[in-house]
Amino acid sequence: MGAGHAHRLYRHGHSPVHGLPPHTKLAATFAFVVVVVSTPREAMWAFGLYAVLLAVVAFVARVPAGFLLKRLLIEVPFVAFAVLMPFVAEGERVEVLGLSLSVSGLWGAWNVLAKGTLGVAASVLLASTTELRELLLGLQRLKLPPLLVQIASFMIRYGDVITDEMRRMRIARESRGFEAKGVRHWGVLAKSAGALFIRSYERGERVHLAMISRGYAGSMPVIDEVTASRAQWSYALALPFTALVVCLLGWAL
């Protein structure tokens, strides 16, 4: 997989959650999200318990609340969509603070907000306690198709390379007195985008030739063999198992 590097979502630590094998955390997060999505929207108390479970995980992982809440802002577009649902949905109406809102729209908005927020929070906790390289190793350990793992690996690495190249081009433009202020500067930005594409394409060709010259034949060598004990699996699956109990109670009550 090559050398690993930290990403902005990752928070370095030595907590029990950080120490779990990546494939156990991936499986636990996926199972938790499935359970949350399967919970009936009418069981509001269940979603409160799910939030408590994630808060416990964040506490054990030593992830500050501010760090987690700041990264939850990524779901703002979905929140905006949910807020509009009571106004545009059809069906039975109800008066709330002088506004005529759709009952089905209110339930739909709650459903999107509750399940979406919990899913994003679980994903943020996963990313906060697992490095990118470990995530890729975990996906490989879970028998995801090797080609997809390689595509994800190259995408992450080339994403960083292209971002750094864009930064250098921006600094070069600004050092020459250029500052984009309107439509008349779009031509310069378009030429910069074209140059970035050509440079990225050429870099990709050089990397591909270098890989072939070093014996690449369609699969990446596995340097670290990631394994998990039964105790580690039990520890990781405690979250989705507890959530499953809550989900079943939500359907029964």
UniProtKB/TrEMBL annotation:
A single BP term in Gene Ontology? cobalt ion transport
Keyword flag Magnesium: no
* InterPro entries from the UniProt entry: ABC/ECF_trnsptr_transmembrane, ECF_CbiQ, ECF_transporter_component
Record CDD domains: EcfT
Q: Name one GO cellular component term.
A: ATP-binding cassette (ABC) transporter complex
User: What's a Pfam family in this record?
Assistant: CbiQ
**Keyword presence, Kinase:** no
UniProt signal peptide: none
Q: How does it sit in the membrane?
A: Multi-pass membrane protein
Classify the main location: membrane
Q: Which UniProt keywords apply?
A: Cell membrane, Membrane, Transmembrane, Transmembrane helix
Under the heading NCBIfam families, the entry gives: ECF_T_CbiQ (TIGR02454)
PANTHER family for the chain: SLL0384 PROTEIN
The protein in question is named: Cobalt ECF transporter T component CbiQ
Give the species this sequence originates from: Streptomyces muensis
Q: Which gene encodes it?
A: cbiQ
